[in-house]
Design brief:
By secondary structure, the chain is an alpha/beta fold. It folds into three domains: 33-162 and 453-514, Rossmann fold (3-Layer(aba) Sandwich); 187-346, Alpha-Beta Complex (Isoleucyl-tRNA Synthetase, domain 2); 544-705, Isoleucyl-tRNA Synthetase, Domain 1 (Orthogonal Bundle), CATH 1.10.730.10. The strands form nine sheets. A four-stranded antiparallel β-sheet has the order 6-5-14-16. The longest helix is centred in the last third of the chain and has 28 residues, at 627-654. The chain is elongated and about 110 Å long.
């Protein structure tokens, strides 16, 4: 028996050495796997943001995807797991802006090229750090194929898609309403916004013969339209298009009556004025009825000259003053002081989103969405959790044209030229357009960048080199996309749409969503609450294997899971248990023939059948993405059935005088141990590989390429 078993298992000493052994073997690269590995199995890693340390959510995806990769590799597949890193556009720029603030600097005082270079240096440094953490978590991905979302080959693919969308008339530049962050001075995707509940006053004002309610009186300058439901009996005397002279904030205004079915007759008084420039619902009404749209608030959150005496005032400062003026004019009816409602805010700084109408590049989504829905409906893409298919279909029905422009420096520049003379934009991926093809006027370079999700939506085929590459031909479509359930709309749906659009095939066959990792009380982890569990700290304290199996057991697909340090500590004890069980079995089977089975006793035959049955169940669970069950069954079988019952039940035979009974018992112990170590490998790769390396087996290979357990009696 190896002398190492005389000491307790030490993950700190073991894990770095084992990972180096795997890397040097070349087996992370499917092209270097033994001959028995034939059919491709591919996972594309959701690229972690290269702007900081990995968190618990990253640890979940690494663990699940590595488990799948190791399992399929052992089953004889040419398993390819492609690693990557995301430049993460807006999110990384926000992180860097905080760094600048601490240094007393601002990105608005920097040249764009200088800011870009600084963020690139920052990102590449973090990227290297993050990759080390992925290795620490045991990621058996093919580092030779690693991709970064700003690699030239990825940018080339993104530009080709931009050009194709233009050629196919699915791209346009237009003035539409967008999410605008007044702090960061950029438009945002919906995923870059969130809602927070606010309690603030809700005001009711007299507006001619009507009473209308609002929480934002600062937007009500220049109101030209009063809108009601066409079936509202209270307002049947007013006709569509009717003009009314109304006393308002700065005197008389002419209001036009508009009838629209979007109005909720049950909310407030059932009538409202609209500000199309600063509200998405109002914008939609204006578009349907061909109404004038007037800007009231600028991009910095200050009132424009239309606000008269309040021009240049910030929204918060102006609100109370405007209400007071309306009160003095006798137009304030009442105030609901504690009005609770959800306010859309920037997810990084929680500044309220100020909707604005702005010239941006938009993608027409309906055609792309219909093909994606059909791919799911016909089973070309399947969701592991049925509820997500329903969510996907519902969202795709309501899909809107997508604003892909961002007013930030960090990201992939939009390859286009703009012409002020005819107020249009033109795709120019070759950067050779000097005059406007429409009016012959001068053009300027578009300084915006792509929404991160535009490039990330092309990730599966971009990382494999596109249709002309050998990797694409061999490994595309990929097998499964594993990611967080919160990304179903903004990433997964876009990957399906772009995959079909660019390759005429789905980007992956299955989608597995994991839920959010919460603390032991089910609360969201946050630094402010002090309840964050760092995966790297946990691996250093208890070993990577303990963290991994803690993240798998109890983690049902698509459902949030609770994680505590106690749970991780408990699985550290399990790793020690496996180590101690191995030591006992090696001591008890020393000198036995491990290649030829003896005649088994009836009881021992039953033990082997029991092992076959449990392995059949576990294999079925693995194939059906029930990792939480497979891990739990292995844990209970090894600890309670094997260690507590079988080992204890064989001691009399092992140390008795009946040689046949002893040989039978030794064979059972050896078979269960080696089978269990193999089955545990995808869950706890380090301790199992270390144990496997010390087992007395002839012509032994690394456990990482051993065959998934096949039991023979």
């Amino acid at each position: 028996m190896n002398d190492k078993f005389l000491k307790p298992y030490d993950p700190v000493e073991t894990e770095g050495r084992i990972y180096k052994l795997w890397e040097e073997s070349g087996y992370f690269n499917p092209d270097k796997l033994p001959e028995r590995h034939k059919e491709p199995y591919t996972i594309i890693m959701p690229p972690p943001n290269a702007n900081g340390s990995l968190h618990a959510g990253h640890a979940v995806f690494v663990t699940v995807e590595d488990l799948l990769t190791r399992y399929k590799r052992m089953c004889g597949y040419k398993a390819l797991w492609v690693p990557g890193a995301d430049h993460a556009g807006f999110e990384t720029q926000v992180v860097y802006e905080k760094k600048l603030e601490k240094e007393g600097r601002s990105r608005f005082q920097m040249q764009p090229e200088d800011l870009y270079k600084e963020i690139m240096d920052f990102t590449l440094g973090n990227k290297s750090f993050m990759e080390g953490q992925l290795r620490q978590l045991g990621a058996s991905c093919d580092w030779s194929r690693e991709k970064f979302t700003l690699d030239p080959s990825v940018i080339k693919t993104v530009y080709e898609t931009f050009q194709k969308l233009s050629d196919d008339k699915l791209l346009y530049r237009g003035k539409r309403i967008i999410n605008w962050c007044t702090k960061h001075q950029t438009s945002l995707s919906d995923i870059e916004t969130t809602f927070i509940e606010k309690e603030e006053p809700f005001y009711y004002f007299k507006y001619g013969p009507f009473v209308m309610g609002t929480s934002r009186p600062e937007t009500k300058f220049g109101e030209q339209y009063v809108v009601m439901h066409p079936l509202d009996e209270r307002y049947k005397e007013y006709e569509e298009g009717q003009k009314l002279e109304i006393e308002w904030i700065d005197g008389k205004v002419i209001a036009t009556v508009i009838k629209d079915e979007i109005i909720d007759m049950e909310f407030g008084t059932g009538v409202m004025t609209i500000t199309p420039w600063h509200d998405a619902v109002d914008f939609g009404i204006a578009e349907r009825h061909g109404l004038i749209k007037e800007q009231i608030i600028d991009h910095y959150g200050r009132l424009l000259p239309v606000a008269g005496e309040f021009a240049g005032t910030k929204i918060k400062e102006a609100r109370g003053k405007i209400v007071e003026k309306l009160k003095e004019k006798g137009l304030l009816v009442r105030v609901e002081e504690k009005y609770k409602h959800n306010v859309k805010v920037c997810y990084k700084c929680e500044t309220p989103i100020e909707p604005q109408i702005k010239e941006q590049w938009f993608v027409k989504m309906r055609t792309l969405a219909d093909k994606a829905v059909d791919a799911v409906k016909t089973g070309r893409v399947s969701f592991v959790t049925e509820k997500y298919e329903k969510i996907f279909n519902h969202w795709m029905e309501e899909i809107q044209d997508w604003n892909i422009s961002r007013q930030i420096v960090w990201g992939i520049p939009i390859p286009a030229k703009l012409c002020d003379a005819c107020n249009d934009g033109f795709v120019d991926i070759e950067d050779n357009l000097t005059i406007c093809p429409k009016c012959g006027g001068p053009v300027t370079k578009d300084i915006d960048t792509f929404d991160t999700w535009f490039s990330s939506g092309q990730w599966p085929y971009a990382v494999l080199g596109g249709p002309q590459s050998e990797d694409f031909k061999k490994y595309f479509p990929t097998s499964v996309m594993e990611t967080g359930g919160d990304l179903i709309f903004f990433w997964v749906a876009r990957m399906i749409m772009f995959g079909l659009y660019r390759t005429n095939d789905v980007p992956f066959r299955a989608v597995y969503f994991h839920g959010m990792v919460r603390d032991k009380h089910g609360l969201k982890m946050s630094k402010s609450k002090g309840n964050v569990i760092s995966p790297i700290e946990m691996t250093e304290k208890y070993g990577t294997d303990a963290l991994r199996i803690a993240l798998l057991v109890g983690n049902t697909p698509g459902t949030d899971m609770n994680l505590s340090e106690d749970k991780i500590r408990g699985y550290k004890h399990f790793a020690n248990k496996i180590w101690n069980v191995t030591r006992y079995v090696l001591t008890s089977t020393e000198g036995m023939d491990t290649e030829h089975a003896p005649v088994l006793t009836g009881e021992d035959e039953e033990r082997i059948v029991e092992l076959e049955n449990i392995m059949s169940e576990i294999t079925d669970d693995m194939e059906k993405y029930r990792f939480y069950l497979a891990g739990e069954k292995l844990y209970h079988y090894i600890w309670h059935t094997f260690a507590d019952i079988i080992i204890e039940g064989t001691k009399d035979k092992i140390f008795g005088d009946d040689e046949k009974a002893k040989a039978s018992a030794q064979w059972v112990l050896w078979t269960i141990l080696t089978t269990s170590i193999k089955a545990l490998h995808p869950f706890m790769p380090f301790v199992t590989e270390e144990i496997w390396g010390m087992l007395p087996i002839k012509n032994k290979k690394l456990l990482i390429i051993e065959q998934w357990p096949h039991i023979t009696t």
